[in-house]
Specification:
With 280 residues, this protein is of the alpha/beta class. The chain has one domain: Metallo-beta-lactamase, Chain A (4-Layer Sandwich), CATH 3.60.15.10. It is built from eight helices and 13 strands. Strand 2 and strand 3 form a beta hairpin. Helix 5 packs antiparallel against helix 6, helix 6 packs across helix 8 and helix 7 packs antiparallel against helix 8. The longest helix has 23 residues. It is elongated, with a radius of gyration of 19 Å. The N terminus is likely disordered.
């Protein structure tokens, strides 16, 4: 796992800004992270996280760089990453979101700045001498959750459906485990990247992403095969261990909850409880 020094922001120990690679920086607010890119023509920011964090970041960016915020990109619709958009974006900032994320924000009347520009599977944004490629790989976590590839820094930013150095969150609320596996495989089969920064936990390289994908596949297979053998949730939580992934933070605490999340998914989405070939 790659490690980076954390420089505390003045007077706000809960907020930090770190240079990750080239002109791409990571903003941390508690357990949440976003990234931004600085060019001579202006700044591109991503998830505002929440109103307090967004207000602080906007002030800090203006103090440090004296540049306008040209773009703000939402990773997806979930409120713990998308609130505060009205605080971070300027009046003339172009706000971008995948069409499903934008639709959900509108339908649910989310109190944030709504996207001005939406897209389906792909969008390319050029700002000065830098580029960002946005890609939607299908369902994974929430609605309209995309990857963001920053060039020439060659940094990938992904929120929630790839989490490095830590277990997926508790019982996988809002996750589509099959979609997460598919999206992560597509990410690894796409353009090479030097560094992946997540919306939570650690930053890392391709090997770290491969390790995470291996965990998702092993977890899914163990729960699926156990259910096909007629085992109930309590039995699965007692029997399933994945020691090769015990280095992930929260392994002991969240493995039973991860198992429960996959179990629920296979009932809710795949109707395993109606399968005629499963007998308990």
């Amino acid at each position: 796992m790659m490690a980076f020094p954390s420089v505390a922001a003045e007077g706000q120990s809960r907020y930090t800004i770190e240079q990750m690679k080239g002109n791409v920086y990571r903003f941390t607010a508690g357990h949440y992270r976003s990234v931004f890119m600085v060019t001579k023509q202006g700044i591109l920011v991503t998830d505002p996280i929440n109103p307090s964090a967004a207000s602080w970041l906007k002030q800090e960016l203006k103090k440090r760089y004296h540049l306008p915020i040209r773009y703000m990109i939402y990773s997806h619709n979930h409120v713990d990453h998308s609130l505060g958009g009205d605080k971070l974006a300027d009046a003339d900032t172009i706000v971008v979101g995948q069409e499903l994320a934008a639709e959900d924000m509108k339908f649910t009347q989310l109190p944030t700045r709504l996207p001005d520009v939406t897209f389906g599977d792909h969008l390319h944004i050029k700002l000065g001498d830098s580029d960002v490629e946005l890609k939607y790989y299908g369902v994974n976590n929430g609605r309209g959750n995309v990857s963001m590839h920053f060039m020439p820094a060659n940094v990938m930013f992904v929120v929630d459906w790839v989490v490095l150095g830590r277990m997926p969150y508790k019982d996988l609320q809002g996750y589509d485990i099959q979609g997460m596996i598919d999206s992560t495989e597509a990410l690894l089969n796409g353009p090479k990247f030097d560094l992946l920064v997540g919306g939570h936990a650690e930053a890392g390289d391709r090997k770290d992403v491969e390790h995470y994908l291996g965990y998702l596949k092993a977890l899914y297979a163990k729960v699926r095969d156990g259910m096909l053998a007629g085992k109930d949730l309590k039995t699965l939580q007692k029997e399933i261990t994945l020691p090769e992934y015990s280095n992930l933070k929260m392994y002991k605490q969240w493995l039973p909850e991860n198992i429960a999340g996959v179990y629920r998914t296979l009932i809710d989405q795949s109707y395993f409880n109606f399968r005629p070939d499963i007998h308990q």
